[in-house]
């Protein structure tokens, strides 16, 4: 897995482009945002804990307090 995010205004982003291109060519997952990296870490941690399940959108909506129609 590659996590490649831009750093400030560091000038040309050629290195980032090459890193992402190599990841795609190697069929390696590439994450390009801090938010995406955080979500990936949370998913990996949930997988390690065995805390992954499948829910319908309707069930999830009920769980988070939505109004069922």
TrEMBL record:
Domain of life: Bacteria
Protein name per Swiss-Prot or TrEMBL: Carbamoyl phosphate synthase large subunit
């Amino acid at each position: 897995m590659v996590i490649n995010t831009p750093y400030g205004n560091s000038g040309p982003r050629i290195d980032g482009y090459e890193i992402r291109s190599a990841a795609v060519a190697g069929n390696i997952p590439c994450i390009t945002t801090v938010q995406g990296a955080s979500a990936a870490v949370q998913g990996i941690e949930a997988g390690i804990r065995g805390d992954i399940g499948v829910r319908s959108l309707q069930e999830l909506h009920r769980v988070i307090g939505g109004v069922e129609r």
